[in-house]
Each structure stands twice: as structure tokens, then as C-alpha cells.
Design a protein that fits this description.
- It contains 12 helices and no strands.
- The chain is an all-alpha fold and 243 residues long.
- Helix 6 runs parallel beside helix 9.
- The protein is elongated and about 140 Å long.
Length: 243
């Protein structure tokens, strides 16, 4: 502190020590003077908007970047929220893989975005387009025919045919044991008819499996849809940064 420095000057220090202290004072004064003379304290006047635009390579003027009369555009974001709320009512939202949590989280995030947009002058039209394809895919996934449901009726019919075959075999075996060859022959023809029907049902089952696989094939592209959405989001962020 100041008292300590003063005490050093009046102490019994050697002349060399006093000279070094004086030199330190002089150097400090030079640094302070250099700093004050080299600094423009009025930064607004020294760095105006025109210079800022030149240095940063900006193409839009302040007037173009901010217009008090501009209103936020977020109706399409509200539509995204409505689409999510409709998905929340989908009867298939909880089957196999539950979409409930994902939908609830998405609605909460969109509501937060809407809240921020209402306080801004931003145009969110492009932003609302980013999740559009993903929402369409999710709805399609919810509504796709599950293979178990598609095969339920056919499987029941196959089960009935197999039970009928077992019963026919039992009757035929008893008839052959008792020597009732006419009854055994009738049961043989019944077995042929049952087996022909069983073959038709099995063919129908494979047809339904193929149909379900074709119906589910588009959802193999979900990764590509997510990737494209991420790319579009990154492009929008980069465009905003350049502004």
C-alpha cells in the first residue's frame, strides 16, 4: 500500500535498492500512460455499424435485420403441436413400441418453442418443416398392420383344420380296426379335402406375411429421414449464424 511504499523510501535501504524501486515506478507510469493513450474509451464512436458490417462481411443492414413492425410467424409451429396432439389420441400409440413418452416430450418442447416465438419477431416457417416427415412416418408406423393381427384369422383356421384332421385320422383308424373299409375310405377322402384346404391356408399365410413385409418396408428409411432432418436443422443454424 501507499504507506508501505513511503516507508521504503525513507528507510535505510541502500542507494541501489532505491534506484531499482524508482525505476519500477517509472516503468509503471509508462505502461499506464501507454494503455490510456492507446485505448479509445468511446467504443460506439470508434466502431460504428458501417465498420462492423465491413469487418464481418454482413450483407443485410440493421434496418433489414430488425424491423419493429415485423410480427413473429409461428402458425406452422402451432400446427405441428396439433399434429402431435392428434398422434397422442391414436389408438395404436402404445402397442409394441410405446410412442406415448416421445409424443408428450415433443409437445412440451414445441410449446416451449411457441412461447419463445411469441416474444420474438422470428419466422418459424422453415423450423416447422423439419419434423414434418418424421411425424408422417410415426403416424404411418402407428397405423401399419401388425403381422400377428394379420395372421390371427388364418392361424385360427389352420388350427381348426388340424383338429379336424386329427379327428378324421382317429375315425379312420377305428374303422380300419373294425374292418369297416367303406367308412375308412370315406375318411380318407375327407382327409384329402382337409389337407387341400390346409395347403390353401398355408399359401394364404405366406401371402399375408409378404404383404405385411411390403407394408413395413418404407420404415427402413426412418434413419434416412432423421438424418435429413438433422442436416436441415444444421443448415438453418448455419444460415442464422451468417446473419
Amino acid at each position: 500500500n501507499e504507506e508501505f511504499i513511503t516507508d521504503l523510501h525513507v528507510s535505510d535501504w541502500s542507494e541501489t535498492q532505491k534506484q531499482k524501486l524508482q525505476a519500477a515506478h517509472e516503468k509503471g507510469s509508462e505502461l499506464l500512460q501507454s494503455c490510456e493513450s492507446g485505448t479509445k474509451w468511446n467504443l460506439t464512436a470508434a466502431y460504428d455499424i458501417q465498420k462492423l458490417m465491413r469487418v464481418c462481411g454482413l450483407e443485410m443492414s440493421v434496418r433489414e435485420l430488425y424491423k419493429p413492425e415485423d410480427k413473429a410467424q409461428f402458425m406452422e409451429v402451432i400446427q405441428v403441436k396439433k399434429d402431435l396432439q392428434e398422434l397422442k389420441q391414436n389408438r395404436n400409440k402404445t402397442r409394441v413400441v410405446s410412442f406415448t413418452t416421445m409424443i408428450d416430450n415433443s409437445i412440451a418442447k414445441v410449446e416451449k418453442v411457441e412461447e419463445e416465438l411469441r416474444r420474438s419477431q422470428l419466422d418459424a416457417t422453415q423450423l416447422a418443416q423439419v419434423p414434418k416427415k418424421t411425424l408422417e412416418q410415426i403416424e404411418a408406423i402407428m397405423n401399419v398392420t401388425q403381422i400377428q393381427a394379420a395372421l390371427a384369422s388364418t392361424d385360427d383356421q389352420i388350427k381348426t383344420q388340424l383338429q379336424a384332421l386329427d379327428k378324421t385320422n382317429a375315425i379312420q383308424n377305428v374303422a380300419m380296426h373294425d374292418g369297416e373299409m367303406q367308412v375308412a375310405e370315406e375318411q380318407m377322402w375327407t382327409k384329402i379335402q382337409l389337407q387341400e384346404r390346409l395347403i390353401d391356408l398355408i399359401k394364404d399365410k405366406f401371402r399375408l406375411i409378404g404383404k405385411c413385409e411390403d407394408e413395413n418396408a418404407p420404415f427402413k428409411k426412418i434413419y434416412e429421414v432423421q438424418k435429413q432432418a438433422n442436416q436441415e436443422t444444421s443448415q438453418m443454424k448455419d444460415a442464422k449464424r451468417r446473419l
